[in-house]
Structures are given as structure tokens and as C-alpha cells.
Amino acid sequence: MIQVGLAIALIGFLWPYLSRLGLGRLPGDIIIRRDDVTFYFPIVTCLLVSVAFSLVLWVLNR
User: Fold this and answer.
1) pTM greater than 0.85
2) Is residue 38 part of a domain?
């Protein structure tokens, strides 16, 4: 549990640098803007990150 918290904190601190890579603004990410509300669902970014983590874990467990 502590490791997960540390990983989330690390990602939070690195987010300004990670956002420069274009994650969160990929084609296919859903953004709906209305008057006062913005709905944002980064589905393609989630899929890309999931595939990357799966490949890393597959290589490490091999």
C-alpha cells in the first residue's frame, strides 16, 4: 500500500514533465465542453499506458 502511494506521488510530481509527451491529448481521447462543465475521458491514453505497463511486466516476469 505504501509503494502504491509513493508511485502515485511520484507520478504527481513528474506530471508537468509527462504532460509534455502528449499523454492525455491523443487522438481518441474524449473531451466534451459545455457552458460550465468539461468532461474528459482519456481512453486512448489509458489503453496506451496499460499496454506499456503490460509489456514491462511481461518482460520482467520472463
Assistant:
1) no
2) yes
